[in-house]
Amino acid sequence: MLPIINVLRHDLKLKYCRIWLCPTAAFTSIPLHAAHLFQTKPDRSGKEPCFEDLYICSYMPTLSALIRSRQLMKKCMSPSFVAIGQGQPGAGKGKVLLAVDSKLELVRKFVPPTAKCTTISGDAATRAGVLEALQENTWVHLACHGKQDPKQPYNSHIVMRDERSQAYNPF
Predict the structure, then answer these.
(1) Please, how many CA atoms are within 13 Å of residue 13, restricted to the half-sphere of its CB?
(2) Which of these, 20, 29, 137, 117, lies nearest to 67 by C-alpha position?
(3) Per-residue CA distances from 125 to 68, 89, 133, 157, 159 (Å)
(4) No. of H helices and E strands in the chain?
(5) Between the chain's N and C termini, which has fewer beta carbons within 10 Å?
(6) CA triplet 131, 82, 72: central angle to 5 degrees?
(7) For residues 97 and 53, what is the distance between their CA atoms, to the nearest angstrom?
(8) pLDDT single digits (tens) 94-153
(9) For residues 135 and 113, what is the distance between their CA atoms, to the nearest angstrom?
């Protein structure tokens, strides 16, 4: 990510803004937003900032999805946001994620007051609840495990307590 950060910061002079990521192929399985430089500053005064210290990262499945979302925003739809978290995905479905609820609370603080904001977590974070929330909201934040199937990408899913939740495609 260092070459990308260098272009964004030094060539384009962009800092502290939203970056849209549209990974393809093998890059879809890498959490690009969590990329860290792990480099010490030249004066040895500490670490260089990591990607998520400098940018707010959002993912999009395709460029057409970004275009469609921009067109919907022009129609003055009131924004709605749902934060979905599942820290205890169930036996054999992944390790317990201890900081899910505190992360959801932190994310809620950054949602504009003009947006309707909901949180779904714990026992309420089920497959049915997630699919309904995805249909009813314009923005979503997920704090949970995900499983990727590189041979059958449409079998990739997020992990909820009751069962896996395959992606919902409203288009």
Answers:
(1) 0
(2) 20
(3) 27, 9, 10, 14, 10
(4) 5, 8
(5) C
(6) 85
(7) 22
(8) 788 888 999 898 888 888 888 889 999 988 888 888 889 988 888 889 998 888 888 887
(9) 21
